[in-house]
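User: I've been going back and forth on whether these two constructs are worth ordering. Before I decide, could you fold them both?

Assistant: Sure. I'll take them in the order you sent them. The first construct and its structure tokens:
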Amino acid sequence: MVGIILASHGEFAEGILQSGQMIVGEQENVKAVTLMPSEGPDDIRRKMEEAIASFDSDEVLFLVDLWGGTPFNQANTLFEDHKDKWAIVAGLNLGMLIEAFTGRFGMDKAQDIAKAIIEPGKDSVKVRPESLQPEEAEKETKNEEPSKPLPKGTVVGDGKIDIRLARIDSRLLHGQVATAWSKDVQPTRIIVVSDEVAKDDLRKSLITQASPPGIKANVIPIDKMIEISKDPRFGKTSALLLFETPQDALRVIKGGVDIEEVNVGSMAHSEGKVMINNVLSVDKDDVDAYREMQDHGVTFDVRKVPSDQSKDIWPLLKKTKYVD
């Protein structure tokens, strides 16, 4: 796996590494090196050399905070003898780092990853109000969904929505979903399915604004999702479905939406709920909903991020008094 060195003035590199791993999961072959106020160029160069020596790969990618700064200059000195394999990208931000982490799943060359992360790094720089954002040429996307409304009954593609992931997550659309999971399943739409959120204009607005580049985000009530699943106009829609509760997921499944597996990401703790791991809390109603989904043939995949090891939910639920 490509080795990644995060290099910065001060502790920025260590902080952004922690942030990236919160979203994507623990990473191998990654080191953060820092240039502290009391240190000089030789100190950070030594740290870089130690990091390189610890990697099990001769492919190295430097992600540095500032072009022309001391961390960049020392990385550039090391780079000179490895121009055929190594790469340096300056202007490190969290979007760029997440793209680098997930890019290692499919790319084994540092220079290929460097090329792939530049645009996502730029796309991470946004501003509100949107009128302050510089205008850019419209980018081509692979989205094959119809660009205009179609008459009812029109069959697009095979006439069936492609549900690539159905996830229960009380946080709904957040960093792990917008980056790691959307990268993994590559949907054309992220659809939050919730009667409660669909009635909340503020939450709806925040969710649609948080959509990653090139992917549309929608918030719809449960009955609308059931209706869409039977509408042939969505035959070229690839969807990532987000549910706030297992009860909402159950209603959709009972309504006829074809979901074979449910990913369980997080369920917030509240009064009356029992913690079954560090991110999942349930009560009797939740357990009953999981049991009824299982009766409908649904299996469960407990993972925060794609790189986590998949686990079944039932050994966790047995920690409660609601499962024999």
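The second construct, handled the same way:
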Amino acid sequence: MRLFLKLFLSHLLVALLALVLLLLLAEAFAPAFYRGHVERMLHALSMMGGGMMGEALRRDLEEGLRSTLTAALLAALPLAALGALLTASFASLRLARTARLLAEGSRRMAEGEYGVRLPLLERDELGELALHFNRLAEALEKVEKTRAELIGTVAHELRTPLAALQGYAEGLMDGVLSKEKAAEGILREVKAMRRLVEDLSLVSRVEAKAVEIRPRPLDPKGLLEEALARFQSAFQAKGVALSLEAQDPLPQVWADEERVLQVLANLLTNALRHTPQGGEVRLRAFRQGEAVAFEVADTGPGIPEEHLPHIFERFYRVDKARSRKEGGSGVGLTVAKGLVEAMGGRIFVESRVGEGTTFTFTLPLYTGLTLKG
């Protein structure tokens, strides 16, 4: 049985039962309302000398009033039933229409048409249901778009090393390249592909919140000093100054040492890549409320404002023409954001074109009450 027919019959049945109940109750309680009026009429007649006819007149008046009321109710019953029919039809059509729209939208969504949206016809629970359906469709559309972009981006990222591998193989076959030179180039491209695969694996675990975090009390200044020691030689080789500034003393933070150093490494690698020779990158740590803020500021070209909301998206590059070798795998900032949030912190970026970019992330203070796990 169709939903409309079910709703229609249920509404109509309720309305008809209400009408029958009204008729029965009117028959039962009506005498209590008109008996007083009959008594007053009889009293008036008795005062006029009609006392001998009182009892017969009483019965006649009560039967007349009852029959008149019953006839009126029965005469109104068809019109009331018609009204119940129209009301049940209207209410059933309204509910069935919304259910039909939901069924059609669900069917189209199941077929992969994530752009479908339902009109918000009502301002009640049905309208709220349609609103949540539209939000679900929007979320699925975004997931599908992200999936398609991910496939396209991975294909693009793999195209360069695969083309290079093909070139080395053809050069080796044609005798243009020596075995040693071809092997060196092949090894380099294979390493690049391996880094890409490892980065993709890490970013997928970060976004799925499946990265294991082992927090313990850490000294913020010690973390910056270790990051400085790791990157000092690379910055010197490019001619970029790397300095450290930290408040002393700073309270300990509750974080995973390996993950914090990984975040700092990603930010420093990004700063080194975009800071020209003669520029400067500054590491800084300071207390910020119930957290310690870590700052990596460079004097690079800066990031245009329209790119800032997307800077932590995977594979997003401000300079679309930048090659994979120059621009890295494109997931370093995505990983940094996921790791910071997994440790209970936040990360954000500020930048001015021509002046430089500053990445800041926070980590919660160690209170002495925090337990592992």
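Notes on the second construct follow. The longest strand covers residues 280-288. The first helix runs from residue 3 to 47.
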